[in-house]
Amino acid sequence: MDGLNDTGVPEFVLLGLSTSWETEAFLTFIFSLLYLGSILGNLSILILVIFDSHLHSPMYFLLANLSIIDVGLSSTTVPKMMTDLLRKYKVISFQGCLTQMCFIHITGGVEMVLLIVMAFDRYTAICKPLHYLKIMNLKVCVSFVVTAWVIGVIHAIFQLAFVMNLPFCGPNEIDSFYCDFPRIIKLACTDGAKYEFIVAANSGFISMATFLLLILSYVFILVTVWKHSSGDLSKAFVTLSAHITVVVLFFTPCIFLYVWPFPTSSLDKYLFIVDFAITPALNPAIYTLRNKDMKIAMKRLSKRIYYGQFC
Asked: What DSSP designation does 91 have?
């Protein structure tokens, strides 16, 4: 990043979510609770999957990796957002802005691929139960996770490469609480039409294509179950409902921002609160409260902790 010092803009000013001190104090409290819930909830899933042998299966291995990504995704923006809410002057350095964008797109890319893998896992479990463990063995699961990280890193580097060398010579105010490509490109002293196309073709296409692929996969699973179970879809729908909820929550802001880049309103920054703060906090509840195995594992862990302390 040696060439980054040549930019005429050493830092960006984040306009944040509100100009009212009372509103900002309230938002700080709410986001603190959400972030704490995200960290504790996702780490709890990770601990359960690691230490409970009953959860050593492909589905929970992927779920543990999703929890790691959720912690990373929320940590890229929420802590700074909370500290900025208490500051009058909210700034982020040029290098810090690029770093934040890079980590957002790495974790976001990894999560997209993991959601596809989890959909494939559910398809295999529901439609090919006799071959499930053979198809989704540990080696295959690890390969999927490694592939997800490789794709996430490549995606982020591809996006970052177009921004690093853009000329910034004047405006430096970002109407948001975080850095992202559409809003940064708007501030560049150059014609942004081709870069708008690049963002739409990269992040927009990936978001839309992944979302449609996931929805079609769930429909295919339900149709397959319906054909083989004389119309009884209840069990399959219960199994898939958690995944569908997470997919809708995660992809709605992505599609809104990246399919139509260069936003003309500030609505997108409020939508991305869902991705950065709400979804990571809700995922542990979505995947545990409706999952019998996870609830039993929590009870087992609680008993082990209790008897370990008092017996």
From this structure: E
**Contact (Cβ atoms closer than 8 angstroms) between residue 182 and residue 261:** yes
Residues near 251 by beta carbon (within 8 Å), at least 6 away in sequence: 207, 210, 211, 214
> Minimal CA–CA distance to 217: which of 120, 73, 146, 75?
120
Report the half-sphere exposure of 86 (CA within 13 A, side-chain side). Answer: 9
The pTM for the full model equals 0.86
Give φ, ψ of 262 to 5 degrees: 55, 65
Of 65, 81, 55, the C-alpha closest to 292 is: 55
SS3 14: strand
Tell the burial category of 186 from Cβ atoms under 10 Å away from its Cβ (0-12, 13-18, 19+): middle
Of 63, 72, 145, 146, the residue nearest 105 (C-alpha): 72
β-strands 91-93, 11-14 pairing: antiparallel
DSSP string across 146-174 = HHHHHHHHHHHHHHHHHHHT----S--EE
The encoded tokens of residue 20 equal 């009212």
Tens-place pLDDT, residues 61-108: 999 999 999 999 999 999 999 888 888 888 999 889 999 999 999 999
HSE-CB at 169 with a 13 A cutoff on CA atoms is: 4
CB 74 within 8 A of CB 38: yes
> Could you tell me if 126 and 235 are in contact, meaning their C-beta atoms sit under 8 angstroms apart?
no
Task: Kindly list the distances between the CA atom of residue 228 and the CA atoms of 121, 126, 128, 241, in Å, as whole numbers in the listed order.
Answer: 19, 11, 12, 20
